[in-house]
Design brief:
This protein is mainly beta. The protein has 1 helix and 13 strands; from the N terminus they run E-E-E-E-E-E-E-E-E-E-E-E-E-H. It has a 4-stranded mixed beta sheet with strand order 2-7-5-4, with no helix packed on it. The longest helix has 6 residues. It is rod-shaped and about 125 Å long.
Length: 203
């Protein structure tokens, strides 16, 4: 007899980078992969040295970027790679807008009330608009913010509630108009203060 040779060749193994996403300005997430071609009960643990990387950085614009694999080895496999996709999505601007102090119904809306702020540059559209006179009552003020960078940021909205008071009304029924009470140190919602003399002038 003369012996022959059985050659066991490496089986093909494809490592595919899984899709991933992140918000603009955020660091890249940890990338993962899927394995196609493992045989005889083998698991991904037989693979070592795999590195997954992308061209995108923290500051990369909204869009899609390849995720590629490299460096992997496995004793019984010929390793190949399939790229995945990292999707960078728009960030939502952070808006801040403190609830404004109450105003009188004869005071028009202005910068004191319409003073929202954002963490990125942009323009503001308020409703109701500056210069509006509102009747007494509670009113919802709304702002729409449009960022200068519309590629990487979405528009955003925020609302606050403004209390508008009637200066000539007498909400607590103590015979003193609301604005007169406030100007003289009284509480327009406390009828008992009609018996007090807040400023010592004998009134």
């Amino acid at each position: 007899y003369a012996a022959g040779t059985l050659t066991v060749n490496k089986a093909p193994l494809t490592i595919t980078a899984n899709p991933a996403s992140k918000i603009y300005g955020a660091p890249n997430p940890a990338f993962t992969a899927s394995y196609s071609g493992l045989l005889n009960g083998d698991t991904p643990a037989v693979v070592s040295g795999l590195s997954l990387a992308t061209t995108a950085t923290t500051g990369s614009n909204v869009g899609t970027y390849p995720i590629t694999g490299s460096g992997a080895s496995a004793a019984n496999y010929a390793v190949g790679y399939a790229a995945g996709t990292l999707t960078v999505t728009q960030a939502i601007p952070t808006l801040t807008w403190a609830t404004p102090a109450a105003i009188w119904s004869d005071v028009a809306l202005g910068n004191t009330q319409l003073n929202a702020a954002a963490n990125v540059p942009g323009t503001w559209s308020y409703s109701p608009a500056s210069g509006t006179l509102l009747p007494a009552g509670s009113h919802v003020l709304t702002v729409t913010f449009t960022p200068t960078d519309t590629v990487n940021y979405t528009t955003a909205e925020k609302s606050v509630v403004l209390l508008v008071m009637d200066p000539d009304a007498d909400d607590d029924g103590d015979g003193m108009p609301n604005r007169w009470e406030v100007q003289n140190g009284f509480d327009p919602n406390n009828p008992a203060d009609a018996l007090q003399d807040a400023n010592g002038n004998g009134i």
